[in-house]
Every structure is written in C-alpha cells, then in structure tokens.
Amino acid sequence: MEETGREQNCTVRKDPGCGSCTMGTYLNCRWDKNILNSFLAAASGLFIGTIILLAMIWLMTALYWPLVLYIFLIVAMFGYEIKFLCSHCPYYAGEGKTLKCLANNGMPKIFRYNPAPMTGGEKFMMKFLIATFLVIFPAASAAAVIWLTISGYSGTIALAAGTGVVILLIYAIAAFYQELRTFFCRKCVNFSCPFNSVEKRIVDEYLMKNDTMREAW
C-alpha cells in the first residue's frame, strides 16, 4: 500500500521540496532513468552468461532441467525479493500498482508497503539470493561446461567457446559487483538491506526528513 499526502516520503513525493537539500549528492533518492539503465546493463551480462552456459550443458548432455530451474528461480526471485527487500524501500511507497525504482522497475506491488527495517530472516534471504545468482549458479555452470568439454562431450571448438563464455561471465560478475558496490549500495535509500553501506549520518538525515520511516525505525 502506498503512502499518501503528508506521510509520503520525499523520494516519491511529486513535490519533494528539495530546495537546498543536499541528500541527492549522497543518495540515489529520486528516480533516474540513467541509473536504472546502468543497473540493468550490469545485471544482464550476469544472467545472460549463465543462461548461455546452461544452454551449452543442455546441448552437450540433453539435460535441460538446470536451465529450466534457473529461469524458474529468476522468476521466483522477483516475487520473494519484492516481499522481503523491495517492500521496505522508500520507492515502494510511490503511487500506482507497479514499482518505479532504480532496479526492479515495473514489478507489481503485490505486498503492503512496510517502512520498518528488514528483519533478520529477510536479510538472510537476501544474502542467500545474492549467493545463489552471483556465485553458486554461475560457478556451477562454468565448472560443468569446462568439465564436460574436457571429458570429451564435445570437441575443441566447444571447449574454446565454453572457456570464452566463462571468462566473459567472470568479467560480468566482477562488473556487476563493482557497479553495486560503487554506485548503488553506497547510495541506496533501502537502508536496512544487508549490503547497504550508506553512512549512518546520511541515514539519520534522510529519516529526519521523512516522518513515516523515522517512526517505523
């Protein structure tokens, strides 16, 4: 459920009254298409690279279920993430039935807005998701492709192609991590996310400007 009127936070308020406020220097506190596009570009390489490797496993072994499982988990991830991460974010309080934010833009707001910080369980699930999609699946897929080609499931060309995709995937993971660390986690207004690294003084200043969040914290 979105906030309305006086209670709506300044990140989504139509008339935020920024004036001389300097929060925009330290936070991504207003929607910006360029920031959204940079996130999508960084994230897409990770997911596309993993899907290509899983497709190669399918072609080599006729095992299609790892690819189907990965795609299913991607879809499921957004549902879980909206609940235990997005629903706590100031952007979630905006008008409309879809989320307008700098990452999961356009996703349906199927849960009630919760201005309170994430719980310990929600933080654990967020860490688990990041580990699954940023480390476990890509690493397992890369190892499987290399092992299959070395074991003779395909020839030299497949080995070269698989190695190339693995190298590109490693680069994509590193780029995505650096993008998050440099441009998002240090400036994100979803302060209770376990990866958020905004300075406490900035968090406190933002909360002082937004009564509903401050009271929930």
Rounded to the nearest angstrom, the radius of gyration is: 20 Å
End-to-end Cα distance, whole Å, is 18 Å
Strand tally, please?
Answer: 0
Mean pLDDT score, rounded? Answer: 85
Instruction: Please estimate the helix content.
Output: 55-70%
Largest sheet: none
Task: State the secondary-structure class.
Answer: mainly alpha
Reading the helices and strands in chain order gives: HHHHHHH
Provide key terms for this protein.
7 helices; mainly alpha; about 0% strand; disordered N terminus; about 60% helix; about 220 residues
Compact overview of the structure:
This protein is an all-alpha fold.
3D architecture notes:
The chain is mostly helical. It has helices at residues 23-26, 33-61, 65-84, 120-150, 156-184, 200-208, 211-216. Helix content is 59%, strand content 0%. α2 (33-61) runs antiparallel to α5 and α3 runs antiparallel to α4. It starts with 22 loop residues before the first helix and ends with a helix. Residues 1-6 have low confidence and may be disordered.
Summarize the SSE layout with pairings.
Blueprint: H1 23-26, H2 33-61, H3 65-84, H4 120-150, H5 156-184, H6 200-208, H7 211-216
